[in-house]
């Protein structure tokens, strides 16, 4: 198959969507498909054999890390040259609308996927009154696709309840070869804890943005005697978080990738994840694969990954004491913590990227099969 993938974000940016897309592109190419990625220009022209068509863009005012790239006529020329069997638009916003237009005008089947819970993000940027309008816009766009993919059963229910049709769950994936428990390192603990490797080490990995609700980790940190916190990642909310955590033993570690990131997960005592807006939370799977016990909000797609008391702990996001109680329990019961680590790793091993990509290929083939009579 020849797949044109339109995405509003791609490498070299680092986030959960890019992680999924980069692994997906890699495995599709390995499995014999040809992929062309249309994305805001990040300086790449090729990735793992796939062609990257970078479109010049400008930083988004509310989120400078994201680039807004407008469709342009040269994209059509590139598509005509590539001759895609189908077009897949990811989190369609601006470039994605171009992908929708080209699918219609070139008479190519359209697949769409939903990865960012945009309606819920709005309230964290003071725009909650626009949530209803956002759902209407999403419905208009997504209902023009032959199939709509999302990343958890909770998101499938949310999309369906708001009138989006033909919704299927694209299963989760994690790189179990990279994220492994044996990468735990006292040197890494020493660095992340800023010279206190024997202290309890709490970890957060992900974007430093308002919707992640990272500020809610502070009461947890303060409730654990001697605990240290490492925040791995970066984003537009970092200055506010630096003020919020001022005077606490919090280390802003910046971005980490590859083995450095895997070692950070494996070396921490607990991964604390308070976000209520996750469509899935791939970073949770990475923590689990590395054997890092997870304490996460019981919201969004997270319960699809974490089973409370089995491979991690879930807490009621509306209960201010919930995350504190779960973290105290985790740190005070070493035997239970070891069991959670083992179960977390076993759960992660079920979800390799190759299996997730084969499932995606099946979705693609079903869309192409539906299009065959029309083409004939």
Keywords:
single chain, 376 residues, alpha/beta, Rossmann fold, eight-stranded mixed sheet, 39% helix, globular
Brief summary:
With 376 residues, this protein is of the alpha/beta class. It contains 14 helices and 16 strands.
Structure, described:
The structure is a single chain. The chain is an alpha/beta fold. The chain has 2 domains: 2-173 and 352-375, Rossmann fold; 181-348, 3-Layer(aba) Sandwich (Rossmann fold). The protein has 14 helices and 16 strands. The chain has helices at 16-30, 73-82, 95-105, 118-121, 131-142, 153-161, 186-192, 218-223, 238-244, 258-267, 282-289, 322-332, 334-348, 353-375; strands at 2-7, 34-40, 46-47, 50-55, 57-60, 63-69, 86-90, 110-114, 147-150, 167-169, 201-205, 228-232, 250-254, 270-273, 294-297, 313-315. The strands form 3 sheets. Strands 3-4-2-1-7-8-9-10 form an 8-stranded mixed β-sheet, with helices on both faces. A hairpin with a 2-residue loop joins strand 5 (57-60) and strand 6. Helix 1 crosses helix 14 (353-375). The protein is globular. It starts with a strand and ends with a helix. 45% of the residues are buried. The mean pLDDT is 91.
- Count all strands and give the number: 16
What Rg, in angstroms, do the CA atoms define? Answer: 21 Å
What is the CATH architecture descriptor of the largest domain? Answer: 3-Layer(aba) Sandwich
Domain count: 2
